[in-house]
Structure formats: C-alpha cells, structure tokens
Write a structure and sequence with these properties.
By secondary structure, this protein is α+β, with helices and mostly antiparallel strands. The protein has 13 helices and 4 strands. Strand 2 (243-248) and strand 3 form a beta hairpin. The longest helix is centred in the N-terminal third of the chain and has 28 residues, at 13-40.
Length: 303
C-alpha cells in the first residue's frame, strides 16, 4: 500500500468513525476484564483467561502476556482472514493490555472494594461476576465484528473457524473458548473451571443473539393500488431497492401488484409513517430477517 493510498484512507469519515467505535468497544471490554474477570479469578474461554493462567504459573503481568499472545495471533489474522480485519485487529488487540492498565490506574479495584458498597460481594460471587463480564464482553464483540474487526485473541481463532468451516461466530467462540478454559485446571479448582466453561457457552449464545439483533432486517410485503407511490418512496427517499410481483387474489380473483423490500427497522418505520400520512390503503406483512447476503448495501449510496 502506497503512502498516497494510506493518506486517502486516513482522510475518510469511515476510517475515523470505525476508529472511534473500535476504541470505545475495547475500552468497554477492558473495563469488564479489569473489574470483573481478574478480581473474580475466573478463567473464561478467552486469551485473557489463558493469560491469567500463564500469569499465575510464571509470575508475569497479565497485560504483558495479553500483548505477546495477541501479537502471534495477529499474524494469523493477517494471513488467513484478510488485510482489513488484520489491520483493525492489530489496533484493538494491542490496546487491550494498556487499556486494562489504564482502568486500574484511573479507578483501582482496591479502591472500589473499599468505597463501593456491594462490589466485593459481586466479584466474590463467581456467578454474578461471570454474568456481568460475559454480557459486557459479548456486546463489545458484537460491535467490533459488525465493522469487520474483533477484540483480538480468541476472536481471531473464532473468525478463522467461522470463515473456513462456516460455523456460526457464536459457536466458534464457544469451541475455541472451551479448549482454553481447560487450561485453567492447572491453577483453579474444578468448580471454577466448570463455571468458566458455562460462561464461555453463555458468551457464544449472547454473541449470536446480539449479532442477530444488530443484523436484523425487515422483509416487507405490500399489496396496494398505489404501489407506484410506494415504490418511488422506497427508491427515492429510503434509497433501497424493491421487487414488484403480480399477485392474484384467491377470493376476489383481482390481479394486483405486490411490493417487496428489505429495510432496516428505522426505514420500515419511515415507510409506515409515509403510508399513514398519505392515507394509502394497503395490505402489509412484515417479518424479521437475521442474515442478508449479496447486493444489500450497508451504507446507502446516492448518485
């Protein structure tokens, strides 16, 4: 990549928007690690969990081990997944360790235990700490996967499994995480390892749930005598494509035109508002679609 191409990318809004999203997402993930995972002593299926095991065995700082393992995995991401994913994950993976240290310097865990009522009991209860960590981490992972990035570590392995074996990303996270969880037998009691395995499974379920919600679209089918007005609104105002079908009523035998379109939730709301304001008589059905492939445009483009 030439310097000119790099400067062109740096000058786009897409780059800076995704940069902000990645930074915020990783800051949230780091908070979950520092305030719930490390104090609880749990080893959930993640590179952070593996780093905790190695830290206890070798006496090295967790943040240092995170950086080392992620550096190795980043090479795999670059070679096996793609340059864009690799480049984004280089950034997110390398800032996780420093962000964990940042949170500890800003608000130390010891300070929270001393001043925040109930915090010690929260992290002392393995199940509560697990639930808080998994839900926060899953939300962060979902946001990053949506822009073709990741939190690094385990997510890289999961993405490789997802790409080459075509397994759902949540299931991929669970499989890779379960293997890492088993390393905790070296430092943790049996019951904590089992809790970690359950947490890894919940992480996969939550990730699939959040991902489906983020990617959900509305498949809208509209039968109306004013189908041309509806078609124009979808194309010109919503900047989406649509399909037209001739349909014949089973009861009346009348031939009409059905308009079908895939819309986001906001676009669907705008379409329904338009039809209501203009008093367009119609028959509408709508259903959720979790996955869209092909010519769907994430970002609407105007000529």
């Amino acid at each position: 990549m030439t310097m000119k191409e790099i400067l062109r990318i740096l000058g786009t809004w897409k780059f800076w928007k995704e940069f902000i999203i990645m930074t915020v997402g990783m800051t949230i993930a780091a908070a979950a690690v520092n305030y719930f995972l490390i104090p609880s002593g749990l080893v959930v299926g993640s590179i952070t969990g593996l780093s905790i095991v190695i830290s206890r065995l070798m006496g090295v700082e967790v943040s240092v081990i995170i950086v080392i393992i992620n550096a190795i995995l980043l090479v795999l991401a670059w070679l096996l997944i793609g340059k864009e994913f690799g480049a984004k994950t280089v950034y997110t993976a390398l800032i996780l360790g420093p962000l964990v240290d940042m949170w500890e310097k800003i608000i130390p865990v010891a300070q929270l235990k001393a001043n925040l009522e109930g915090y010690s009991e929260l992290v002392g209860d393995s199940w509560f700490a697990l639930l808080c960590f998994v839900l926060i981490l899953s939300a962060s992972q979902t946001i990053l996967f949506h822009i073709n990035a990741s939190t690094g570590g385990l997510d890289i392995l999961a993405k490789i499994v997802n790409k080459y074996l075509h397994i759902d990303i949540g299931t991929s996270v669970s499989i890779a995480g379960a293997l890492i969880c088993c390393t905790a037998f070296a430092v943790n009691p049996f019951n904590l390892v089992i809790i970690g395995l359950i947490g890894t499974w919940i992480n996969g379920l939550a990730l699939d749930y959040f991902t489906a919600g983020l990617n959900r679209r509305k498949r809208v089918c509209i039968i109306s005598d004013e189908h041309e007005r509806i078609r124009k609104f979808i194309i010109e105002n919503l900047v989406r494509g649509c399909s037209l079908y001739e349909v014949k009523g089973g009861y009346s035998g009348d031939v009409r035109v059905e308009v079908q379109a895939l819309l986001t939730k906001d676009e669907f709301a705008k379409l329904m508002a338009f039809m209501k304001e203009n008093k367009i008589q119609s028959f509408v059905t709508a259903g959720n679609v979790s996955e869209v492939y092909g010519l769907w445009r994430e970002k609407k483009m105007r000529s």
